[in-house]
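Retro notes
What went well: the complex prediction finally ran end to end.
Inputs used:
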Amino acid sequence: MNERAAVLPVEDLRRDFPILDQRIHGKPLVYLDNGATTQKPLCVLDAVRRFYERDNANVHRGIHELSARATDLFEAARERCAKFISSASEEIIFTRGTTEGINLVAGSLARGPLRAGDTVLVTQMEHHSNMVPWQLLAEYHGVRVEWLPIHGQEGRIDRDELVRLLDREPKLFAFTHISNTLGTINPVADFCALAKERGVMTLVDAAQSAGHMRLDVKSLGCDFLVCSGHKMCAPTGTGFLYGRQELLDSLPPYHGGGEMIDSVDYSGSTYKLSPSRFEAGTPNIGGAIGLAAAVDYLEKTGMDAIAAYDHELGQQAYDAIVSESLAEVIGPAVGRAGLVTFHVPGLHAHDLVTYADSQGIALRGGHHCNQALMRKLGYTATVRASFYFYNTTQEVEALLVCLRKAKAYFGL
Ligand code: PMP
């Protein structure tokens, strides 16, 4: 463990997550499926409960006391999220998560500046949610999707190749910050600067990074950034889209309905500016309040300490699996995020995950919403262990023990 990682009071932090303190099939739970969703601390559960217990009403509509309170809490949550990534409040649009954020941008761009024949550049390491929305635009709007290749089992991006593709002036470059399968941490500021020099808009998928490292959209230099609350200690069905203010205000709405309009008549409607323009209908008010509590909790814990700690756990797991030849591992050898994805030759991912479950260990097996990437790397399915700040080195060791035992159990 490096020095910064060692200062995280993990045993104290674990007490904030009662769910971790249980036995599964008679064994202590080892939760290593944080890439899919993280657990929620008591302060988040309390914030949501407090809202429904004392303050629940619809936002922005009522003149009565409860509605005023709910509106204040909801808008304070927006400010809290804005501060978390160093943006302005008006630049934060609450969504159901990353998937909705990307679809929102795709849908609005398709009604606005994106024309048939325009290109969207996407990397080959993207999650389905940063592939399919663009493919839908290709299918229904005549937009072209261009793929930035990745190379080798580490999934390397060649910067010169990126520059060549950006020189062809796509309208948008959409890419993940951290690959949910490879564990790659892409150099967002560098990629965004390259795109900006060429007048190309950028969208960053921060699903795997927002809860794991400090993000500052001004120094990243992106036009859009999306994340999911449930991957950063907040309830499911929450998240936000950041968009540069003038860009958001220039884009047409995504959903139509209540709260996003200035005026409506039978002859037509006019729309508010961001963020209201993109938040039609009653939002997930309790969820946004829970998300703000999660962001408070993460910052109190320390984003830099979290990053150092869970990246270190990922590296430990990677190094041990490789040095003991326990499995084939994909993704970069160093500088990786807090997850490790692997394949044990002769053992189907689902069999290994089922075996791990019998040992109390929660892993993920399958294509991880990266079917195209899996195929490119020559796998139908792999197993992923993904870490968070409440995991321990003992749990990394439990994973290794489990892998050794599984191989013996399956006669490999
Ligand atoms: N992008 C990445 C990199 C992800 O890991 C995920 C979730 N696995 C998503 C997008 C989609 O997030 P959500 O399902 O929360 O919308």
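What we learned: Residues 3-31+302-409 form a domain with the Aspartate Aminotransferase, domain 1 fold (CATH 3.90.1150.10).
What to try next: split runs per interface for comparison.
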